[in-house]
Design goal:
This protein is an alpha+beta fold. The chain contains two helices and five strands; from the N terminus they run E-E-E-H-E-E-H. Strands 1-2-3-5-4 form a five-stranded antiparallel β-sheet, covered by helices on one side. The two termini are 16 Å apart.
Length: 84
């Protein structure tokens, strides 16, 4: 999906890799909050940002702890979605 690798939870896209960055599905509320963090920007590859998704630049996932934190945040949102 999106020309990269994606990982799903219960049939819903959770996180993925686009070019050299992580994309994470955080939902509208946490997604907006995350945009204030370092190394985070809107996930926009078409000219229209996807609400609830963020792109975490490589500097924001340099170690396992950082990566694990983003995956956990995405998991918290996605596990509340209906199973597909």
């Amino acid at each position: 999906m999106f020309g990269g690798i994606g990982f799903m939870l219960r049939g819903n896209l959770l996180v993925g890799v686009w070019k050299d960055s992580l994309i994470a599905r955080l939902g509208p509320s946490d997604g907006e909050k995350a945009l204030a963090e370092e190394n985070v920007r809107p996930f926009d590859i078409t000219g229209k940002a996807m609400k609830g998704w963020v792109l975490v630049e490589p500097e924001g996932i340099e170690n396992d702890g950082q990566l694990q934190r983003w995956i956990q945040r995405a998991t918290e949102f996605v596990k509340g979605l209906p199973e597909r």
